[in-house]
Amino acid sequence: MRLLTHNMLSSNIKGVTNGFPLLIEAEKVVEKAVDFNEDFLKNMFAKIEWKALVDASKTMGYAELPDNVESSMLDSDEFLQKFHHALLELHLEEGALVCPETGRKFPVSKGIPNMLLHEDEV
Amino acid sequence: MTSRPELQAPPEIFYNDDEARKYTSSSRIIDIQAKLSERAVELLALPEDGVPRLLLDIGCGSGLSGETLTEYGHQWIGLDISESMLSIALEREVEGDLMLGDMGQGLGLRPGVIDGAISISAVQWLCNADKSSHDPRLRLKAFFGSLYRSLARGARAVLQVYPENLAQRELILGFAMRSGFSGGVVVDFPHSTKKRKEYLVLTCGPPSLSSATPKGKAEDGESCSDEESSGDEQNQSVYVADRNRPRKKQKLNKKGKGREWVMRKKEQMRRKGNTVPLDTKYTARKRKARF
């Protein structure tokens, strides 16, 4: 699972009001090279919750992202490369996602998060 | 023996390892899936500016439909309830992200982040109640509600469905409209039993010119003409449903009942023996507008 998906996911448990961002418990992180596409990054930038992305990439062992960003930084190629790497190339292979409110763990195995809820959580 | 998989077992059980492998090794199914997803992307009508979008594939299965999205250069997130299908998708090394989840429990995505959603032959599963806790209505509501929230405004969702009958079609479409989508059903090849394919084309937001439902495809590859779809009810291939029902017609007669009517009613009440206020010059007189 890439951090792109992590940035979109929020906890869906009944009664949870703020299920974003899910905390990451990383056991195994892999990197896979993906084609760089500037347009996609610029398009996604507005939709990304930056703080969640920075925190998530730190728990995955990548601390290159700046804490504060503004849209003018999108012109810098160096920044875009880092953004690209964090967003699309870091994969959480094994570990868990943890709901920030209830502490419920969603296990991640082989890169697939199991987001199935129990009956009493729907 | 029925041929509808929906009637045989719940999806996470029906698509076991055997079925998942069969599904993905049959060249016929691969071909059909690819065509369906190509058509779905066409109906999504994303702006043609070459910018990759973030799409959602609901019921992605082994990633056959996702591969089409990758071919178009988009990034996608796939959701499926069958672990076996997802592990086949892993073997096939699809490029999108996969997620094990139940669409009937809601999608669990942040609001307004997805640029479009497709779903190939999946949504009709929601009409089944496979567990005692399942209520198709609640599940459809949760699904369409969360889909509406996660889509960006003006984004489309194209859901190819195989409804079992008219009631199911109405149920699915009804819940889509109630969650705020506008749009309708596009039927490709309406005259062929086998080739007939239905797509729910839903747009996030109120109906507008840009959200007008596209035409279905006819046998000769051209779109159904207007005459054909409006001339005969049986042949109708495209219909647009609007979630805004016409308001109840307001009474044109604003004058009210009048003094005569009030006097008659008062007389009636008196005859019944009720206490009725005296008739004065103020009885049934209209209040000043300033009041």
From TrEMBL, chain A:
SUPFAM superfamilies: Trm112p-like. Signal peptide: none annotated. InterPro entries: Trm112, Trm112-like. Pfam families: Trm112p. Interacts with TRM9. Belongs to the TRM112 family. PANTHER family: MULTIFUNCTIONAL METHYLTRANSFERASE SUBUNIT TRM112-LIKE PROTEIN, UPF0315 PROTEIN-RELATED. This is Uncharacterized protein. It comes from Penstemon smallii.
From TrEMBL, chain B:
Gene3D superfamilies: Vaccinia Virus protein VP39. InterPro entries: Bud23-like (IPR039769), Bud23_C (IPR022238), Methyltransf_11 (IPR013216), SAM-dependent_MTases_sf (IPR029063). Residues 202-289 form the 18S rRNA (guanine(1575)-N(7))-methyltransferase Bud23 C-terminal domain. GO terms for biological process: alkaloid metabolic process; methylation; rRNA processing. Residues 221-231 have a biased composition (Acidic residues). The keyword ATP-binding does not apply. Residues 56-154 form the Methyltransferase type domain. GO terms for cellular component: cytoplasm; nucleolus. Keywords: Cytoplasm, Methyltransferase, Nucleus, S-adenosyl-L-methionine, Transferase. Residues 245-257 have a biased composition (Basic residues). GO terms for molecular function: methyltransferase activity. Belongs to the class I-like SAM-binding methyltransferase superfamily. BUD23/WBSCR22 family. This is 18S rRNA (Guanine-N(7))-methyltransferase. The lineage of its organism: Eukaryota, Viridiplantae, Streptophyta, Embryophyta, Tracheophyta.
